[in-house]
Amino acid sequence: MIRPLLVAANWKMHKSSADVSAYFDAFDRAAPAPRAGVEVAFFPPFPLLEAVVRATRGRRHASVGGQTCHWQAQGAFTGEVSAGMIADTGARRVLVGHSERRQLFGETDETCALKLRAALAAGLEPMLCVGETLEERERGSARAVVLRQLTRAADGLTREESARLTVAYEPVWAIGTGRTAEPGDAEEMHAAIREILATLSSPETAGATRILYGGSVKPDNAAVLLGQPDVDGALVGGASLDPHGFAAIVAAACG
Ligand code: PGA
Q1: For residues 171 and 215, is the Cβ–Cβ distance under 8 A?
Q2: How far apart are alpha carbons 4 and 211 in whole angstroms?
Q3: CA-CA distance, 159 to 151, in Å (whole number)?
Q4: Fewer CB atoms near the end CB (10 Å): N or C, the chain?
Q5: Which parts of the chain have pLDDT scores under 50?
Q6: Active-site residue 160, yes or no?
Q7: What SS3 class is residue 58?
Q8: Is 170 considered catalytic here?
Q9: Ligand 1: which atom is nearest the Cα of residue 240?
């Protein structure tokens, strides 16, 4: 099964509209020419979605997404943004259940399940983020936690819905800390995630689902992580803010 690698930039709460064109100018100069087998995605903050959609228009290998969404289509939910509103900007993807949302904003497996379904209903491709805390890893429950997060969010999807799902394994202790999972540990978790996906959907769908690794991915560790058979890309936070750094990670994916 050949899965195109997906290298995704999570800008979190960074950058302004004035930064967007300079970012893509620099990225275009530094990144390798787009090629089959390697795709890029950008997750900017909501106010920059349209500008990033415009900046990436016409690029076959690039897509754009929101960093979260609400599960209702509309209503009296001050401050929230629905999946349909994200789709309306021309964006194609949305992150669901990023650990910062789970840890800082009270998202639960149940709200992630609702958001995942709302994203699918709006025609988006959700990227479900899962990952254990340091305490959970040290207790030996990393695998159980990740599999619970995955199952609670993604059980009961139709075949067509499962085909639009991407997963990002992001150990919480690796995010923004400079610590990454050992490539072998990442591979083990990715393989376990794919096994569960096969039982939730089908072996064929699971075989085609991209499972990204995230957590302190940098230009100097990307190649070895992306070289693992079940690591199908990277979700990059800090290192994606610099267009040269992000381009170097895309170059690592291009091999
Ligand atoms: P990081 O963030 O690359 O800064 O560790 C990854 C993420 O949170 O998606």
Answers
A1: yes
A2: 11
A3: 15
A4: N
A5: none
A6: no
A7: coil
A8: yes
A9: 3
d(CA 126, CA 66): 9
The predicted pLDDT at position 227 comes to 96
Query: Which of 117, 114, 149 shows the shortest CA–CA distance to 131?
Result: 149
The pLDDT value recorded for residue 1 is 63
Amino acid symbol at 161: E
> Closest by alpha carbon to 222, among 7, 52, 1?
7
What is the maximum span of the chain, computed from C-alpha positions, in angstroms? 48
End-to-end CA distance of the chain: 18
Candidates 3, 32, 22, 12; CA nearest to 170 is 12
Among the atoms of ligand 1, which is closest to the Cα of residue 168?
9
User: What is the C-alpha to C-alpha distance for residues 51 and 199, in angstroms, rounded to an integer?
Assistant: 39
Q: Which two tokens stand for residue 239?
A: 């290192």
Strand ranges (DSSP E) for 15-157?
38-43, 62-66, 93-96, 125-130
Pocket of ligand 1 (CB under 6 A): 10, 170, 175-176, 214-217, 235-239
Q: What residue type is 225 in one-letter code?
A: L
Looking only at the bridges linking them, the beta strands covering 93-96 and 62-66 are parallel
Selection from 61, 26, 3, 6 nearest residue 241 by Cα? 26
Q: State the pLDDT at residue 102.
A: 97
Domains of the chain: 5-254 (3.20.20.70)
